[in-house]
Amino acid sequence: MKNKDLLKQENMKLMQRLSEALKEDNEEAMAEAFSQFASGVQERIMEEYGDLQQNRDSAILAARGVRQLTSEEKEFYQAWIDAAKSANPKQALVDINKAMPETIIDTVIEDMRESHPLLENIDFINCQGVIKMIVNADNIDLATWSALNSKIATELAGKIDTLDMTMAKLSAFIPVSKDMLALGPVWLDNYVRIILSEASAAGLEKAILKGTGKDQPIGMCKNLDGAVTQGVYPDKTKVKLTSLDPEAYCAVVAPLAKKPEAVGGYRTVPEVMLVVNPVDYIKRIVPASTVRASDGTYKNNIFPYPTKTVQSAVLDEGEAIMGLAKKYFMGIGAGSSGKVEYSDEYQFLEDNRVYTTKMYGMGRPKDNNAFQYLDISKLKPQSLKVEVTNTEDNPVNTKEKAAATGV
Are residues 313 and 333 in the same domain? Predict the structure, then answer.
């Protein structure tokens, strides 16, 4: 058996490969990376099961990531296991009249939030079974001190938008070996949550940042007011950021404080999120946001405005996205059916069966002023400015001058 830390490192490398394959739309590389990732997860869970199979202490099991299932969850997984072991699993799964419980999706979303900072910061919710979501599109105050006449009601109604949560479909493939099924509902849940959270997070991150809007969410870098061609939204014009000095940086932040033109007015901006490529974070952001303290130590992530940096392999080097994280809405759920289906379309691993579950959802910026698409290719390192104030009108009494004048 492999060491758990080694397995974890290998899984992280495989997820990086999966993210890169998604970015390049390389299906063959995606399949290979995902199959190796799924195999590694199953190996780790089998090892943990062997270590803990004699332990019935729920606190210890929970600390190792083994959840205590609700009765509905246990019933769902047991029905899946029974169907998978049958002579005709495809038909047996069709016959099961059970959707994936909402609590499983809740836990998957929580798992994604914990391990993916981008998903943790946006407005990310479970919309299980919901067909449409109401969105306050223009960030307007949906309240009035005046009498609610028809004119005001019409104006308010015009600022409320709806998102069709069935527009985008994210299919998750779950390879399950026969040995995994033998471990029972609790351990199958552990495996399914890892696969769903990691595989879905990779696809979601790409869509949230750069989604075209065609059969997928609208990315932060897209222009909501631009001309939509066959369902595809255009990119925003990139804004150049060459320095992190207060004047240059705040000039990029300031437009975020304006509400869309159709609404008018301003909003407070307590903090901004800056999403950058991991290489750019090391090569550009760290040098530009690091200063040397008086005690000789270095302090990094020093910005002139409150900023939370997030690294993402989805972005190319030289580009970044800045914005108000909570102004991006993303909702996902298992749809109205939420069933697990048998798939003979893909066969990632030997001695296993592949199952699919469809997750539906949609996401987009809540308004067009919430995010800036940046060009940081010319971002300069931090430099210490020294201003000389020794002038003829206000001379500084140096040692040399004191010695010469006797003062």
Answer: no
Write the pLDDT tens digit of every residue in 76-100: 889 888 888 887 877 777 777 677 8
Per-10-residue mean pLDDT, the chain, length 407: 52 66 68 72 74 58 70 89 82 74 84 89 78 49 43 45 59 77 85 81 88 91 94 96 95 94 87 97 95 87 96 95 95 69 58 71 90 96 64 61 60
pLDDT in tens, 375-392: 999 999 876 665 656 556
Length of the chain in terms of residues written: 407
**CATH classification at residue 305:** 3.30.2320
Residues 6+ apart with CB under 8 A from 63: none
Tokens linked to 319: 């580009």
CA distance 320 to 324: 14
Count the Cβ atoms, other than its own, within 10 Å of residue 209.
Answer: 22
Residue 214 Cα to chain centre, angstroms? 19
83 lies in a domain? Answer: yes
Exposure string of 353-362, with b = 16+ CB inside 10 Å and e = fewer, is bbbebebbbb
Residue indicated by tokens 């065609």: 214
Asked if residue 100 and residue 8 are part of one domain, the reply reads yes
The helix or strand, by DSSP H or E, that contains position 80, with its residue range, turns out to be: helix 71-84
Give exposure, 23-49, as e/b (b: 16+ Cβ within 10 Å): beeeeeebbbbbbbbbbbbbbbbbebb
Structural domain includes residue 386? no
Strand duo 371-375 + 239-240: pairing: parallel
* Separation in Å, CA 182 to CA 46, 49, 363: 10, 11, 38
Alpha-carbon Rg for the chain, nearest whole angstrom, is 27
Structure tokens at 378: 């010319």
Q: In terms of C-beta density within 10 A (0-12 exposed, 13-18 middle, 19 or more buried), how is residue 57 classed? A: exposed
Give me the phi and psi of 291, to 5 degrees please: -130, 155
Task: Supply the mean pLDDT for the chain.
Answer: 78
Q: Are residues 293 and 344 in the same domain?
A: no
Q: Are residues 317 and 267 in the same domain?
A: yes
Query: How many domains does the chain contain in total?
Result: 2
